[in-house]
Each structure stands twice: as structure tokens, then as C-alpha cells.
């Protein structure tokens, strides 16, 4: 018996990995994050399978499902939105499984920041502009470590992808506008890859009003950084005809 922590991806069933889809199609017990998972994904699960919506469950209740499945020697698909390793709360579940000697594996999924970048048709890195991508969130009921204060991270001026924080968009803009500047490119993507996907583009000075106009408050990701504008004259050297690397001899300038 094994518990499979499966990344559901950002929403579209077509963005599931082949392994994730195979496990869902064969599932006899599925524990899923009902508040975040696209219902279309659950249509892949056999109708006779046991289903448990973790949105209303505590950790103890989730672990109890795992224990019962272990007694019956039935695998469990634990379906998490996006990529389980990012804000997936899988660590505490794996600790509980370790304590009980129950085997588990993790199947990665596409994260919201990747689907958002695809929807925006942007590259999150740009030569000599941004070579670092920061995935973070604003503080809420779960505080942030002092060293990861948002204003402190923003001093890097890296491309920043901010999860779980759209309801605080006005506060975020105020904090980020200092290091990045109010004219810095920004975008908010709601339900990336879902049928009801919404995109707000603009600058830091504009996105809060855009979110209000679109009624976006939750399940969205904020992206900020100069790389979002496809900076001119900052092409990678990788395909520069003058650049020599291990697979190609560059031409003379």
C-alpha cells in the first residue's frame, strides 16, 4: 500500500503529467483539495472510488483515511493543486506517514507561476535584467520568517511571483513600489489555465485597480519584474551567432 501525493497542476486537465493521470484513472481512494481543484480533474477518477474532500478536514482526519486505507491495503491518491512542494502542506502529512510506517511517493505537477507565465506569454528571466525568480507570499495568519520580509526580498528586484495574497493587492503594491518603482511591469492571473481564467496586466501602479474591476480577490498569483516587459537588447547569448559554446563555434563579430 502506498499514498501518492499527486500534483494536479494549475487547473487544466491537459496539464496533468501522464503519471498523474494514470494514477487518477486507477484510483480507489482519492483525497483532494476541493477548494482548489478544478472539478474537471475529478471526472477522471473512477465513479466507484472513495472520495474525501480535504477542504473540510483536519490533518488528523486526513491521516485517519490513510491509516484505514493501509489496513485495507489500498493505495491512496492524495491530490494537491499545482506543485505539491510549493505551499502544499505535504510535509506534515509525510511526517505522519513516516511515524506510522506507511509508504508514500510524490508526483510533481505544474505550478501556478508556470501556468501564469504561459498565459502571459512571457519569460520570467531576461539576460542582464533578471536571472532570479522568487516564489513567495504575503504574511497572513501564518507569519513570514523575518529574513523573508516582502520588502526585503523586493530589494533584489528579481522577478517575483506572489501566491496566496491577492486579497492584499493594495498593500503589496505599496510595499513593492519602493524597490521596483510604480512603473514596473506587473500582472495578476486568476485561475491560470482554467476556463474562467482572467488576466490583469499593467504596472504596479495599475494592477490593484484592475483586480478590483475584474472582481479578483482569491486564487490568483501576482507577478512583478522588469523581465515581464520583454526588455529590448537583452537577448540571451545562447543563440547569438557570435557566441561560442560546447555545441557550436561562434562566428567572428
Descriptive notes:
There is one protein chain. With 253 residues, this protein is of the alpha/beta class. It folds into two domains: 2-107, Cobalt-precorrin-4 Transmethylase, domain 1 (3-Layer(aba) Sandwich); 112-229, Methyltransferase, Cobalt-precorrin-4 Transmethylase, Domain 2 (2-Layer Sandwich). It has helices spanning 18-26, 39-42, 59-72, 90-100, 112-120, 150-154, 169-180, 204-214; strands at residues 2-7, 29-32, 50-53, 76-80, 103-107, 133-137, 159-163, 185-190, 198-203, 220-224. The strands form two sheets. Strands 3-2-4-1-5 form a five-stranded parallel beta sheet, sandwiched between helices. Strand 8 and strand 9 (198-203) form a beta hairpin. The termini are far apart. The relative contact order is 0.14.
Quick structural overview:
With 253 residues, the chain is α/β, with parallel strands linked by helices. 30% of the residues lie in helices and 20% in strands. It folds into two domains: 2-107, Tetrapyrrole methylase, N-terminal domain (Cobalt-precorrin-4 Transmethylase, domain 1); 112-229, Methyltransferase, Cobalt-precorrin-4 Transmethylase, Domain 2 (2-Layer Sandwich).
Amino acid at each position: 500500500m502506498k499514498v501518492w501525493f499527486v500534483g494536479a497542476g494549475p487547473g487544466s486537465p491537459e496539464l496533468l503529467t501522464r503519471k498523474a493521470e494514470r494514477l487518477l484513472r486507477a484510483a480507489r481512494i482519492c483525497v483532494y483539495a476541493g477548494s482548489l481543484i478544478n472539478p474537471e480533474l475529478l471526472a477522471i477518477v473512477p465513479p466507484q472510488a472513495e472520495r474525501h474532500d480535504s477542504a473540510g478536514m483536519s490533518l488528523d482526519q486526513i491521516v485517519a483515511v490513510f491509516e484505514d486505507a493501509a489496513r485495507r491495503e489500498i493505495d491512496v491518491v492524495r491530490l494537491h493543486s499545482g506543485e505539491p512542494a510549493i505551499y502544499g502542506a505535504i510535509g506534515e502529512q509525510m511526517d505522519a506517514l513516516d511515524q506510522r510506517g506507511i509508504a508514500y511517493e510524490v508526483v510533481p505537477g505544474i505550478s501556478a507561476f508556470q501556468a501564469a507565465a504561459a498565459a502571459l506569454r512571457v519569460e520570467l528571466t531576461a539576460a542582464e535584467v533578471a536571472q532570479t525568480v522568487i516564489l513567495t507570499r504575503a504574511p497572513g495568519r501564518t507569519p513570514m520568517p523575518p529574513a523573508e520580509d516582502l520588502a526585503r526580498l523586493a530589494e533584489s528586484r528579481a522577478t517575483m511571483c506572489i501566491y496566496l495574497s491577492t486579497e492584499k493587492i493594495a498593500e503589496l503594491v505599496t510595499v513593492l513600489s519602493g524597490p521596483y518603482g510604480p512603473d514596473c511591469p506587473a500582472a495578476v492571473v486568476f485561475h491560470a489555465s482554467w476556463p474562467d481564467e482572467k488576466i490583469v496586466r499593467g504596472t504596479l501602479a495599475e494592477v490593484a485597480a484592475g483586480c478590483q474591476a475584474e472582481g479578483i480577490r482569491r486564487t490568483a498569483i501576482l507577478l512583478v519584474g522588469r523581465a515581464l516587459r520583454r526588455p529590448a537588447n537583452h537577448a540571451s547569448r545562447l543563440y547569438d551567432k557570435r557566441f561560442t559554446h560546447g555545441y557550436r563555434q561562434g562566428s567572428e563579430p
